[in-house]
Every structure is written in C-alpha cells, then in structure tokens.
Design brief:
With about 60 residues, the chain is of the alpha+beta class. About 25% of the residues lie in helices and about 20% in strands. The strands form 2 sheets. The protein has a two-stranded antiparallel ribbon with strand order 1-4. Strand 2 and strand 3 form a beta hairpin. The radius of gyration is 10 Å and the shape is globular. It binds iron/sulfur cluster. The site of iron/sulfur cluster has 15 residues, from helix 1.
C-alpha cells in the first residue's frame, strides 16, 4: 500500500498523532516519511486516513 497527502491538508496533526512513524508535520502541511507503507503500519495508516477531517490522506495499491 502506498500513501500520499494532498495539499488540502489543514495541518490538524491527527495523522502525526496516530502514526508518527509515517506522518510528520512539514512546513505547511503534513508530509509522509515513506511512500510504501510497511505491513506492520498499515492498520495505523488506515486509521489516520479514516480520521483525517478533510480526507487528505490518499491510500493506493500502486505508486
Ligand atoms: S490528519 Fe489530514 S488534515 Fe490533519 S494533518 Fe494529517 S493529512 Fe493534514
């Protein structure tokens, strides 16, 4: 699974709190530390995507 963040992010910090191994706050919006999500973190990343208030976390099967 691959993850990216769209620029509609409002920097609320939920994803960083939920999965700090994958998400970090950048200068303007959140950024991802990896593109391909390690299998051990998939559940946390899916939870972050679900909880993102503006649906800015995009999960895909392909890069
Ligand atoms: S949860 Fe969504 S809006 Fe909040 S910082 Fe993460 S990507 Fe941005």
């Amino acid at each position: 699974m691959f993850v990216r963040i769209e620029d509609t992010c409002i920097s609320c910090g939920v994803c960083v709190d939920t999965c700090p191994d994958v998400f970090e706050m950048g200068e303007d919006i959140a950024i991802t530390l990896v593109e391909k999500v390690p299998s051990t973190l998939i559940e946390q990343v899916e939870e972050a995507a679900y909880d993102c208030p503006v649906d800015a976390i995009i999960l895909t099967d392909e890069e």
